[in-house]
Amino acid sequence: MYSIQMFLGKCRRHSCPDDTVCVPDGATSSKRYSCEPSDTNGNQTNHTLQIPVTWPSGMYGLMMTSNGCPGDLWLSGWRRFDTEDTDPDNYFTDGIKNYLKGYFEIDDIETHFCIKNIPSFTSCDTSWPKGSYCILMYGGSCPSGFQSGFIQWNNEDNGNKNARGGTLPDGVYDSDTRIYFCCRNDGLTSTAISLPTDQPFILVRISTACQTVYGMGVTEVFVQWDEDDVDDASDPGGLHPYADDGFYNLRLYFCYYYNG
Ligand SMILES: [Ca+2]
Ligand SMILES: [Ca+2]
Ligand SMILES: [Ca+2]
Ligand SMILES: [Ca+2]
After folding, report:
1. How far is the CA of 49 from the centre of ligand 4 (A)?
2. Ligand 2 centroid vs 175 CA: distance in angstroms?
3. Is pTM, for the whole model, over 0.70?
4. What is the pLDDT of residues 39-50, one digit of tens each?
């Protein structure tokens, strides 16, 4: 008499090569098992079993793409940075508005955010995968596997017109801006991770390259904020995104993922 236990036992005794995982083929299969590609967490990645890939569990935020948020359940918010008014020098990837939602001019910048304010959207949600990337902190702590850090912006000192709206990442939003991030650097960017592929989304770069994501193309873009020219008290802290924090300027790099 065959039982699922026997097939699982077959799997247990079978040693699959590295980067694969043993998958029982079911009670009617003569193969009994196969070795399927897996990610660094040992999760099968070719989706033979049709496990839905959902947004990982926990509360956090993502930069909003020009297409909006990657689903209907996300909250949204925005930050208007009043950047340097005198000889303003904000600078962006050409066509930045095709990637990031917001307002990108030479003397002011506005960015938008998507916030996941409930720990789970579905019963299939799993943990964030190992890798090298940052997301936005929300709810006072990071999902498991991440460390916190922040980026500090010194916004215009004279007649500051910073503004905000909606639900924002954890941070300090007064006449200057501090935004907290959740970052990890525990996997190679070249080792692909699984995230939902049905809509574009953005991760923030922490190392020298964008994290690879299964089934998604990626375009790296940057935004340079012209910080106030009088003083430069704006050092980042903790484990934070890669930043070119130059002389009264701050540049961050965003990884825009798209399907196809
Ligand atoms: Ca300004
Ligand atoms: Ca300032
Ligand atoms: Ca100024
Ligand atoms: Ca400046």
Report:
1. 53
2. 6
3. yes
4. 777 777 765 556
